[in-house]
Amino acid sequence: MTSLNAAHISLLHPPSFTRFLTARAMSSLSFQITSVVIGWQMYALTSSTVALGLVGLAQFLPMLACTLPAGHFVDRHDRRNVVRICQTIDAAVIALLAIGSFTQLLTPAWIYAACVVIGSVRTFESPASAALLPNIVSAEALPRALALSSSAFQTASIIGPALGGFLYVAGPGVAYATVAVLYLGASFLIASLATSWTAPKKEPASLAIMLQGFSYIRSKPVILGAISLDMVAVLLGGAVALLPVYARDILHASSIGLGFLRAAPAVGALCMSLAIARYSLQRHVGPTMFGAVITFGLATIVFGLSASLPLSLAALAVMGAADVISVVIRSSLVQLETPDEMRGRVSSVNWLFIGTSNQLGEFESGMTAALFGTVPAVVLGGIGTILTALIWMKLFPPLRQVRTLKTAQ
What is the CA radius of gyration of the chain? Predict the structure, then answer.
């Protein structure tokens, strides 16, 4: 039996990874359903688009405030327990929203408060979950494990919004109650994991220690190049934010067409995730990452210029597939190049950069569209993504020269 086949078997058969993957899917599905239900319920209560914007802000601000302490906390405690407690808190908060909905006592203020807690908890859960996976699988199996984890997230991104809408028909209380059960189930699965984590030497919390994640990333050209490349590419390639405009004014599609457009990137990402999980990324890792970002930019340009719904769907699917290649390589490099005792802080910084760029990317696309028009905004974003990849190839030669994930320096 080859080492590749052995790695494939060792990854899929132990119950710990299966449980982790199931918990990841349940947690991601819960978040997707919650996002849809909170948005619909808030708009039903207020009829205000400003109120909808404040929902996102209520989750975003805690992320900025909690990133540094979250990374330090994750590195000082068993990541399994951090994830489990975060999911339990999510379940409790969502259960309160369910009770408020059933009793018709829920107000926008209570929803905002819940969003603050959810945003705060996710700031701890996301880096803890990212740092937990290397404690479950071997370094050789990590890229394939990350691909499968990404496929679980993408599947939830496809199913979650539709399921949230379906559950909302029965009432927001029913939807929230379902989410609370899913979060509790994920928490129980995480609690049952067997991990290799060992407690680090106790250090007093200080700003210098909390900032070590930033310092470490800055000292590692491979990690800095991978994170910054992905961040800038996402920032410039925020075409998804303009999908409603494309659906109505350019492609002349119905609301069903908009649904297909929103699902297309996740479908492409899911297919690519499963392909990477099956065949892995064995050679030319650095060039492959740059090629994926350039492909993402080219597909963005095609989408921006397209007036055909099938072509637009295909371009969005390619964007999703290319993005997954970049995400898996970046995540693998970050985890493999980071000592276990620092993975929480580094993962927290990584999550902050990528999460921020997603939201700022949507803002950038909206503002550019307002200034130059929708099609030029998307095309310029695609061109900017390609130029960024070419510039980063010059700025970060160690990243360009990475051949295999095992030999990343």
Answer: 21
| Among candidate residues 57, 183, 66, the one with its CA nearest the CA of residue 123 | 66
List, in order, residues 6 or more apart from 358 with CB less than 8 Å away: 234, 238
Give residue for tokens 């009432």. Answer: 171
How far apart are alpha carbons 359 and 381 in whole angstroms? 15
Burial of 307: CB neighbours in 10 Å, binned 0-12, 13-18, 19+: exposed
Contact (Cβ atoms closer than 8 angstroms) between residue 180 and residue 91? yes
What type of residue sits at position 308? Answer: S
44 burial (CB, 10 Å; 0-12 / 13-18 / 19+) is: exposed
Q: Is 78 helix (H, G, I), strand (E, B) or coil?
A: coil
CA distance 277 to 400: 23
pLDDT digit string (tens) for the chain, length 409 residues:
334 344 444 454 567 888 998 999 999 899 888 887 888 888 788 877 567 667 777 877 888 788 778 887 888 888 899 999 999 999 999 999 999 999 999 999 999 999 999 989 988 998 888 888 888 887 777 778 877 887 788 788 778 877 887 888 889 999 999 999 999 999 999 998 877 666 566 666 555 665 677 777 777 888 888 888 877 877 777 677 677 678 778 888 775 676 678 778 888 988 888 888 777 776 788 899 999 999 999 999 999 999 999 999 999 999 989 988 888 888 788 777 777 777 777 777 777 777 666 656 655 666 777 788 888 888 998 999 999 999 999 998 888 888 777 544 4
Q: Any idea what DSSP says for residue 107?
A: -
> What's the one-letter identity of residue 393?
M
CA dihedral for 324, 330, 335, 337, sign (positive or negative) = positive
Helix locations, 253-308, DSSP H: 255-279, 285-305
Show the CA angle centred on residue 134, arms to residues 129 and 136, nearest 5°. 90
How many whole angstroms separate alpha carbon 167 and alpha carbon 177?
10
Candidates 17, 328, 12, 296; CA nearest to 147 is 328
237 token code pair: 């390639």
CA distances from 152 to 7, 159, 338 (A): 20, 11, 24
pTM: 0.70
Instruction: With beta carbons less than 8 A apart as the criterion, state whether 346 and 224 touch.
Output: no
